[in-house]
Design a protein that fits this description.
Blueprint: E1 2-5, H1 10-19, E2 26-29, E3 47-50, H2 58-66, E4 71-74, H3 84-89, E5 93-95, H4 102-117, H5 120-128, E6 146-150, H6 154-166, E7 169-173, H7 179-183, E8 187-188, H8 191-197, E9 200-203, H9 217-222, E10 227-231, H10 240-248, E11 252-257, H11 279-284, E12 290-292, H12 301-319, H13 330-334
Parallel strand pairs: 1-2, 1-3, 3-4, 4-5, 6-7, 6-9, 7-8, 9-10, 10-11, 11-12
Helix pairs in contact: 1-12, 4-6
This protein binds nicotinamide-adenine-dinucleotide.
Nicotinamide-adenine-dinucleotide binds near residues 78, 175, 210 and 211.
Length: about 325
């Protein structure tokens, strides 16, 4: 099948080309992120392959549908960037990669917690400059600390398993409790209780209208003073301006982000020669107790190979008219 692959980086191209040896689709790679301004690029393609920051709102979906697209293959798990109701109305099939390497994201979450707690980035830059002072590097032991996990699906469950090894008290909030998590001591409580009791809060639920700005002014008030907040899920789960105020007042003591609500214009690009125009992001970067990574939690070789393999298999299912288990149904959205 002829597929337009958007937001392509060198690593996408090599993993897709390698895996495509077994599938033989006609892949055409575009470096551009799909937006309404370049949607004409899909002309002649029945399928497109997109990533987390490609724009698939109502207008873009209408434009690409008019240009003959029938399949949208997301090469990611989250689907918050697709207007699924409009896609459904236009008869567009949307497939995704629901699970590729949840361990990759879970392990990066732990990397952020540990680096923030033990001030690894500050220590590294200091020591490189010959400064071996310990002032400002004081950490805490995770053992015995209460960690609140919001969303114990594939990734949240793995985070819980790792933190169980650290000897943490594991608290969780999820509309569906997980038997395996409960078996090793995860305690399901209300979101309000989780905010009140946790020393570390880590977000692993999807971004949906109900979870937009889940972390906001009101709930920050419930949190312990000096709490650590980690988000490796989706940027808009957090009201960033509210979090900045809480960092300034020291209510939030540590912030680790792999995602940011306005990341679409910034992440995945080398902007080191440019002036950052986003004042909120620029302010975040000034705090000594904030670590931001540019949506790299998924980024391992195993994950890239699995993403390419499953995406190509999804496309083949569609091409051959077979049932594809990774099709996003409206039921999933309403769940
Ligand atoms: P999943 O679907 O397996 O798990 C999500 C869990 O969140 C489910 O158990 C669900 O019941 C729960 N949930 C839904 N609404 C909730 C709410 N209001 N409060 C609490 N829990 C709620 O998804 P996953 O594979 O674990 O991925 C989680 C998120 O991680 C994805 O939505 C995606 O946005 C993000 N992600 C980020 C990266 C990255 O590189 N940073 C990579 C992959 C996925």
């Amino acid at each position: 099948m002829k597929v337009a692959v958007f937001s392509t980086k060198s690593f996408d191209k090599s993993s897709f080309e390698q895996q495509n040896l077994s599938y033989c689709h006609d892949l055409v790679f575009f470096e551009e992120r799909l937006t309404k301004h370049n949607s004409y690029l899909v002309n002649g393609f029945a399928a497109i392959c997109v990533f987390v920051n490609d724009q698939l709102d109502q207008e873009v979906l209408r434009l690409i549908s008019e240009n003959g697209v029938r399949l949208i293959a997301l090469r990611c798990a989250g689907f918050n960037n697709v207007d699924l109701l409009s896609a459904n109305e236009l008869g567009l099939t949307v497939v995704r990669v629901p699970e590729y390497s949840p361990d990759a994201v879970a392990e990066h979450t732990i990397a952020l917690i540990m680096a923030l707690n033990r001030r690894v980035c500050r220590a590294h830059s200091r020591v490189r400059e010959g400064n071996f002072s310990l002032e400002g590097l004081l950490g805490f032991e995770l053992h015995g600390k209460a960690v609140g996990i919001i969303g114990t699906g594939r990734i949240g469950k793995r985070v819980a398993r790792i933190l169980n090894g650290f000897g943490c008290i594991l608290l969780a909030s999820d509309p569906y409790s997980d038997i395996e998590c409960e078996s090793f001591g995860v305690k399901y409580i209300t979101l309000e209780e989780l905010f009140t009791r946790s020393d570390v809060i880590t977000l692993h639920c999807p971004l949906m209208p109900e979870t937009y700005h889940l972390i906001n002014d009101e709930v920050i008030k419930l949190m312990k003073s000096g709490v650590m907040l980690i988000n490796t899920s989706r940027g808009a789960l957090i009201d960033t301006k509210a979090v900045i105020e809480a960092l300034k007042s020291r209510k939030i003591g540590y912030l680790g982000l792999d995602v940011y609500e306005e990341e679409g214009d910034v992440f995945f690009e080398d902007l080191s020669n440019q002036i950052i125009q986003d004042d909120v992001l620029a302010r975040l970067l000034t705090f000594p107790n904030v670590i931001i990574t540019g949506h790299q939690a998924f980024f391992t070789q195993k994950a890239l190979d699995t993403i390419a393999e499953i995406t190509l298999s999804n496309i083949t299912d569609f091409e051959k008219g077979r049932h594809c288990p990774n099709t996003i149904s409206l039921d999933l959205v309403r769940r």
